[in-house]
Specification:
With about 80 residues, this protein is an all-alpha fold. The chain has one domain (about 5-70): 434 Repressor (Amino-terminal Domain) (Orthogonal Bundle), CATH 1.10.260. It is about 50% helix and about 0% strand. It has four helices and no strands. It has helices spanning about 5-20, 25-30, 35-45, 50-60. It is globular, with a radius of gyration of 13 Å. The two termini are about 20 Å apart. This is Helix-turn-helix transcriptional regulator. It comes from Paracoccus saliphilus. Keywords: DNA-binding. InterPro entries: Cro/C1-type_HTH, Lambda_DNA-bd_dom_sf, TransReg_Diox_bact_type. Pfam families: HTH_3.
């Protein structure tokens, strides 16, 4: 079994996805209707967002919520085998 996914891992994933979509931290915060400092706290692993915030983030990034919890490790789904 692998290492547990942490709040810091979530923040790193959020930052990577946000940047890949061309959002600045400020423009992304406006898109998800959150304070920029709160988004920064999430990205630094200092804030632990609730489910409603996670769903807003996923919607803004146009990804399924589970993609926010991916460390980039290759996983094979049962339907891909």
């Amino acid at each position: 079994m692998g290492k547990a996914f942490t709040v810091s891992d979530f923040g790193k994933r959020l930052r990577k996805l946000r940047k890949s979509r061309g959002y600045s931290q400020e423009s992304f915060a406006l898109q998800v209707e959150l304070d920029r400092t709160y988004v920064g706290g999430i990205e630094r692993g200092e804030r632990n967002p609730g489910l409603k915030v996670i769903l807003k983030i996923a919607e803004a990034l146009e990804v399924p919520p589970q993609d926010l919890f991916d460390r980039g490790e290759q996983t094979v789904r049962a339907d891909e085998t």
